[in-house]
Give the backbone structure.
Amino acid sequence: MSGMLSLRYNGCTVPTIVGYNLGNIAKQVMRVFAVVLLVLVGVVFVAAPAGLLAKLTPDYMNTTFWIVVIFAYYFLATIMPIDKIIGRLYPLFGAVLIIMAVGMTITMFTSSCEFYNWAKFPNTHPQQLPIFPLVFITIACGALSGFHATQSPLMSRCLGNERQGKAVFYGGMVAEGFIGLVWATVGMTFYTNPEALAAAGGPANVVNDTAIALMGSFGGVLAILGVVALPVTSGDTAFRAARLTIAEVFNFKQTAIASRLMVAVPIFAIGIVLAMVDFNIIWRYFGWANQTLAMIMLWAGAAYLYRKGRFHWICTVPATFMTAVVVTYICFEKSMGFGIDISISNWIGIVAAAAALAAFLIQGKKPIPGAPLDC
């Protein structure tokens, strides 16, 4: 929805799409959320690929070395035309991504793994944290991603016509979900129990150990590079989209390199400072902001369909559900939220979702002043 709406609105950004469908207040809220989320994405997707690359290279190329290299690449990808760096590297990234997803899937079947050998319905979290809403915040991009919505304009501006949208946007969404399921399956299949998975030493070790074990030395390296491609191709476009969003807010023309640097340098300065904060804390903020932005975008898509007399429930139902998720999470979360008891938080989330749905059904068909009417 975000991709096709951007295409119909001549490549406009997600905050503008939201403004056209939910009004100016929602647009301003979306601008803040979008910039915050994009900077957080750029930060959280530095350490993980740097750690993986450090495992594949000599000791002098440690994690710090690769963090510097990745930040430098992000900076160039942010200020250079999209066809100069991103457009040239993405075919290579796409190739190793396909090798990773297909290779890990096939080798799990051929290695006689017992699939989901410890999958159970009871809560197996070591601290017994509640499945709802935490699982819907923790499992982010592979299931639902506001961040990916913010990237849609970058792609919509590269399409020749709307017919290409199904393959690019819907196809990309399905591929992302498939890759998420591949690694969820690896985690619950390669390791015999939750304790073994927890003892692996974090995501970088899990990827490294499972890829080498299942695909061998050469194939494992390709699979690891495929995993590296995932966060790297998120981080580079995140900082780029943050620059474009800020430039749109303040009406800064971005044709000259100097104008791009004026926006990009402060963004990266903030990103470098945030990179020094505890990753687990940053990830919580990223997860909640990501799903909140997705929720707002779902409401915008629902409003568009509602006014057109189309089947809006395809967006309205998940928008309502995600409203309950993000409100419940921020009420329950102790380190960044209000720390309210989970049972009370659940009821607050349900009431908020019901109120949002009722307001949408009552007000959703009213036209937004200034919004294009012919899209």
